[in-house]
C-alpha cells in the first residue's frame, strides 16, 4: 500500500487464514480472510499510533459513511487505506457473486463496528480514562476483532453453510463472544510476557505530518493498560496472580466453545471454523512463541514447512 508507518503482517495474516481454511476449495475464503485481517491491523495501527484524536474521528466518520466521496475530508496519509478498504470490499462482492453478497454486507457492518471500538479506545486514551478490569475487558474483547473474523469465515463458502449457520456466526453471542475473549486474553498475556522484546525493538512511530514540523496532539493507545495490567492494578496483585486469573477465564470460554460443538448439528460448518480460529490463537500466542504475530521470526519454521519445503515422501 505504500504505508511505511504500519506493520507489514501480510504473511502472518495468510498463515493464520491458511490454518483456518486449509481446504483447496476454500481459496476465496482464505484470501478474503487474510486481506481483511491485514486491513483491520492497518486500521488499528492508524488509530493506535499515528492519528491524533481529530483524525481518528474523521476516519471513523468516513468508514461509517462508506462512500468514496468521504475521502475528501481525510488527511492524505489516510486516503490510501480508505481507498484500499473500498476497493477490497468491491472485490469481495465480485468474487462471491450475487448469492453471497449478503455475507459481505454483514462483514462490512462488523468492520464499521470495529472502527467504532477503535475510536472508543482512542477517546479513552485522549481523556486519560483509566478503565476498570470489566470495562477494559468488554471493550478490548471487541477491539481484538473476534466478531469480524467470525463473520468473515462465512464469506465465499458454498451452500453447505446454511443461513442458520451464517446467522449464528454473525450473532456476537455465546461461542462467538467466547472466541473474542480467548483472542483478547491470549493476546494480552502473550504481549505482557513479551514486554522485554517490545522494549528491545521499540521505535518511535511518528505521525506522518510531524516530518513537516506540524505538532501532533495524540496519545498512543499503547499507553493504555491491558487486561493483565488492569487486573493487577484493580486487585493490587502480582502479574503471576493476574495471569493465573485470566488463564482460568480462558478455560471457562473454552467450555462455551466446546458446548457449541454439541448443541446443533446444522451449525457445525460454522462452529468448526470458530474452533479453528481458537486453535490459531493458541498457536500464535503460546508460551514458547510468545506473541508470534508481532515477532514473526518465531514463525519461520512453520512458514517454511507449510509453503517452502517439499513434503517428505
Please give a handful of descriptors for the protein shown.
mainly alpha, 14 helices, 313 residues, globular, Farnesyl Diphosphate Synthase, single chain
Question: Would you write up a description of this structure?
Answer:
With about 325 residues, the protein is mostly helical. It has one domain: Farnesyl Diphosphate Synthase (Orthogonal Bundle). The protein contains 14 helices and no strands. The N and C termini lie far apart (about 40 Å). About 40% of the residues are buried.
Q: Short summary of the structure?
A:
With 313 residues, the protein is mainly α.
Biggest pleated sheet: none
Structural class: mainly alpha
Please tell me how large the radius of gyration is: 19 Å
How far is it from the N-terminal to the C-terminal residue, by CA? 40 Å
Name the CATH homologous superfamily.
Answer: Farnesyl Diphosphate Synthase
Strand content: under 5%
**What is the name of the CATH class?**
Mainly Alpha
Summarize the helix and strand pattern as letters: HHHHHHHHHHHHHH
Q: How would you sum up the global shape?
A: globular
Overall tally of structural domains:
1
How confident overall, as mean pLDDT?
Answer: 88
Protein name: Terpene synthase metal-binding domain-containing protein
Pfam family, one: Terpene_synth_C
GO molecular function, one term: magnesium ion binding
Organism: Oryza nivara (Indian wild rice)
